[in-house]
Amino acid sequence: MTEPSLHPSAQKSRHTVSRQWILHQYPQRSHSISGAFKLIERPLHPSTPSTPQGTCIPANKILLRTLWFSNDPAQRTRINNASPDRLCTDLMREGDVMSATAIGEVIESSHPEYRKGDLVRGAFGWSEYVLVDTDSSRDWQLVKIPPKTNPADFMAMGGTALTAYFGLLSVGAATSADKTIVVSAAAAAIGSIVTQIAKNVVGIKRVVGIAGSEAQCEVIKERCGADIALNYKSPNFRREFEEATPEYVDIYFDVTGGEALELSLRRIARNGRVVACGAIFRYDSGGEEMAVSAKAWTNIIFMKARVEGFTVSEFKDRFPEAREQVFRWVRQGKIHPLKTVWRAKFEELPQGMVKLLKGEHVGKLVTEIITE
Amino acid sequence: MTEPSLHPSAQKSRHTVSRQWILHQYPQRSHSISGAFKLIERPLHPSTPSTPQGTCIPANKILLRTLWFSNDPAQRTRINNASPDRLCTDLMREGDVMSATAIGEVIESSHPEYRKGDLVRGAFGWSEYVLVDTDSSRDWQLVKIPPKTNPADFMAMGGTALTAYFGLLSVGAATSADKTIVVSAAAAAIGSIVTQIAKNVVGIKRVVGIAGSEAQCEVIKERCGADIALNYKSPNFRREFEEATPEYVDIYFDVTGGEALELSLRRIARNGRVVACGAIFRYDSGGEEMAVSAKAWTNIIFMKARVEGFTVSEFKDRFPEAREQVFRWVRQGKIHPLKTVWRAKFEELPQGMVKLLKGEHVGKLVTEIITE
User: Which chain regions cross the lipid bilayer (chains A, B) (predicted)?
Assistant: First the structure.
């Protein structure tokens, strides 16, 4: 099948350069990430042979314009150079294009499987245009978005949903025998999926979600099905937490650290589990402050609890199976994607990270690029 | 076989009462345990029929005089009433005889398997004399000490050795592939056995023991075979810890909490394990102080580490197998018991707990009763 747009004569590209956000210098201290990045322009594909008609796309390549960007705590981790050998992923180098998962629209293609207008997800980074070699589609982690799928919804069911899936079911080993689960940042990307799977799939009796505003608490109860939602900024949070966990805490799903971690350990049940998946409160700090008190730690011992650190990449061989299961639950109406779409210009991209760390959004925070 | 001493005419007992240390009131704050106990005298066996010749021992009973007492951190735990439902064992009640493992000498017996002069280990508590019903020997956890065995050595290879065994091999899952293990309180009862099994049985390349004095450090290296011994009171402890763990920490065996825990987490290896077995530093405190910093906690996540709380009782079905293995290693010269024998009068017994918590001893701290 020959596509008109794939014909060599149609492949004159106006796009020979792309704007990119690169890591300029490792950020220091709280939320001071505005100076960490620099907007530059680079040749899109310096080795592409030029013709008088413009640049031709070589065989098996696709040119995309990125339109949606995923904002993830892991991005913040990768630019933290305090202890480069103590990261779960490789540290980025200064000068690298900032890493990010994005969805792009195919604007030119010399590969028969990709047509102009297709939406494709990949590890495109903060680049406005990307020229992708489909021979290395694994490196780019390319996935075509199914037709009629909202790109932001698709993003909400991406890596963060897989993190929820493996964290809850494999690391947390959740079953219906667990009476109580506490989920931190339960209105956010990972927590909203954990909450829904815990309640609607596993069937845990008491699902307690934690968030930082009344609006988020509303979402946790109304849209994620949690039995109880707690605002950690409440002056009575400690007492409310105790009242919400009369049978203690079988599983605590932690992406934040902070008071929720401390209280969950203080009330951990016998043989309880902590899925230690993130510490978003800490990424910007020096780290010398207290994470866990002696009282909380002693409970790990006495209650024979287990704390397990976890990053989703260790399950990558099982991603296809998990993705299939998650989308099945979506079709069955058991879980649904939650997202906040922030519309911005490409030159505003780093502000998405600031928003992410502030944590005022609901569900997955997706940056949608405004095209004039 | 009839033993002369078992003949009814020989069973006149002079022992109708026993001195006992009971829990008088739950201790508060640091080392203030002197007022927690009260020395009383109670009828040894009120239901024994009396004769003009004295008290006869009923059938299948043995009368013991306790001569060696084991001092264990778990004893301190059982009298901590701050959070009674948050203990790994039952909380003792005020008025109860203080629980303890002890070795007693049989002074009278109406059971053919126990003869006068036999040494028997059991859960005798802080009683000077005990009248044991052999029908409930499981409750008493009776074990006859083999002939020619030093009672203090036998005690050193008791519950604390089993804790070392299961903690290191089952919870810690130690293998020769682990490059580095750090052992806290490595000169003490549990740590000295962990250190020896890690080095002489498992064959871990770098065994780092931690203690609180130069004398203890000497013991860790010379008698337990550790490659490196560190004094946590050294002004350069942090730097010394780093230098001692160039390949990070695969396993940290924790019975203390404190700085050793913090540094072990800061230097935990990928997929490292923390065997959370005790927090002796904390038993006397309110527990509000820091156990783990944010920096250390974040490493649990990034390094995919596992922290597992553990008390040896969960392995009780496997005690016989473990005991056999441990004594086999002793006979093979791979490990040997370490102990400190404190000679004291029965009325000084509670001071053993103070000594234990001070931690200046080496190996198992055994109280040997001075008999005039």
Answer: none
Among B142, B74, B47, B160, CA closest to B103: B142
* A chain contacts of residue B76, beta-carbon cutoff 8 Å: none
CA angle at residue B83 from B78 to B87, to 5 degrees? 45
Are A86 and A173 found together in one domain?
no
CATH code for the domain in which residue B139 is found? 3.90.180.10
Rounded distance between C-alpha atoms, residue B182 and residue B169, angstroms? 14
Between positions 192 and 211 of B, the ones with CB within 8 A of A are none
Mean pLDDT on A238-256: 97
Q: Which of A261-265, B110-114, B203-207 has the lowest mean pLDDT?
A: B110-114
Three-state secondary-structure class, residue B176 = coil
Please check the confidence at residue B13 and state whether its pLDDT lies above 60. no
Q: How many domains does chain A have?
A: 2
Give the nearest partner residue to A306 out of B288, B292, B306, using CB atoms. Answer: B306
The pLDDT value given to residue B14: 62
Structure tokens at B12: 């006149």
Question: Is the CB of residue B277 less than 8 Å away from at least one CB of chain A?
Answer: yes
pLDDT tens digit sequence for B124-139: 999 999 999 888 777 8
Residue linked to tokens 């527990």: B287
Interface predicted TM-score (ipTM) of this complex, two decimals: 0.86
- Is B173 near chain A, with CB under 8 Å? no
- For residue B38, the model assigns a pLDDT of 95
pLDDT of the residue at A359: 85
Q: Is B277 in Cβ contact with A298 (below 8 Å)?
A: no
Residues of B in contact with A304 (CB under 8 A): 88, 308-311, 314
Whole-number pLDDT of residue A206: 98
For B313, which residue in chain A has the nearest alpha carbon? Answer: A304
Q: Residue A265: how many CA atoms within 13 Å on its side-chain side? A: 29
Residue A8 has pLDDT above 50, yes or no: no
B302 contact residues in A (CB cutoff 8 A): 77, 86-88, 309, 311
Q: Where are the alpha helices (DSSP H) in A151-213?
A: 151-156, 159-166, 189-196
- Would an 8 Å CB–CB cutoff place A315 in contact with chain B? no
Residue A329 included in any domain:
no
The answer to whether residue B330 is domain-embedded is no
Supply the pLDDT for residue A49.
43
In chain A, helix, strand, coil percent, each to 5? 35, 25, 40
Q: What's the mean pLDDT when you consider all of chain A? A: 88
> H or E segment at B241?
helix B237-244
Nearest of A230, A316, A304 to residue A273 by alpha carbon: A304
Indicate whether A180 belongs to any domain. yes
Is A122 found in the same domain as A31?
yes
pLDDT of B327 > 70? The answer is: yes
Co-location of B216 and B118 in the same domain:
no
Q: Please tell me whether residues B177 and B292 are part of one structural domain.
A: yes
Whether chain A has a CB inside 8 Å of the CB on B304: the answer is yes
Closest-CA residue of chain B to A275: B301
Nearest CA in chain B to A286: B295
By the 10 Å C-beta count (0-12 exposed, 13-18 middle, 19+ buried), B77 is classed as buried
- Are B100 and B175 within one domain? no
Closest CA to B212 of B340, B362, B32: B362
Q: How many CB pairs under 8 A join A and B?
A: 144
* Residue A186: domain span: 159-312
One domain, residues A12 and A149: yes
